[in-house]
Amino acid sequence: MMKSQNKNKTFIMPFSGDELDHAESRRTPEELEFFIKQDNAQCLCIYNGSVAINSAGGLKLIHPSKLIGKKINDPGPIFLGIRNNTPIFSASLVEPGEIKEDLTFEDLRKASKFLSPQEMSVAGRAKSLLDWHINNRFCSKCGQITQPSSGGIKRECNRCSTEHFPRVNPVVIMLIISNNKVLLGRGKGWPEGAMSALAGFISPGETIEEAVKRETYEEVGIKIKNAKYIFSQPWPWPSQLMIGMICEAESEDLNINTDEIEEAKWFKKDQVKAVYDNSGDHFLRLPKFTIAHHLLRNWIDS
What we know:
α5 packs across α6. With about 300 residues, the protein is an alpha+beta fold. The chain has helices at about 30-35, 110, 115-135, 210-220, 270-275, 290-300; strands spanning about 1-5, 10, 40-45, 50-55, 60, 80-85, 85-90, 105, 145-150, 155, 165, 170-180, 180-185, 200, 225-235, 240-250, 260-270.
């Protein structure tokens, strides 16, 4: 749970908040077989990157036994964890028509508009793990094909015995503030009016605060101070940890690097508030499942 700075509001950050026990110490072949055979076991099916949803707009989970004998993409069923004594898996289907279920699939970005934060957490974890398996089938040390292990939370090389684990990429995303205004930018290829907080990957040997300073200077040519952490969000495209920050600009004179972003503008707090209250059109309001949406909401409320 996360709390807004001034109004004592609590909210669950999208793609987080699910009380899922990853059970990383209970993943022997025998334990995994026990979990998948439980009567209450559930599985989220994925097809071409889209997730199965039910008629009410939530995630549709089926029993893993319905996948027996069906074509499933590498790595097979992924053990996501246990929630309220219920083992939860995910699987990437080759041909959904093989499953005797009425399955409807929706792109996760679109589905995120109506899924609960907890459902997004399960779907996001499933997507991030699956994408990692797709992109890490070969050993980075010797080139041999790797094999999934421990229910899908690592891959092993049978040639050189190297173990490979899912990667999470840290990204800073920052609200840059000056005189009750905030700086927002439009990324390359974004539609007109689509503005968001500046962001960038953390480089090796860099602190979070140093990354905020570097990325801000690289993209808009201004120096910042007093960088502070607000909150974070796992982001499954493909597997980022978005680290939400707020900082103060030392100048409002922009020198925009058009190789990095299309444009950047200062917006007054009342302009941002009008966008969020649906009474202004200064820019397109960010989707509620993004951390940038909540960073701006938190700033408006502070």
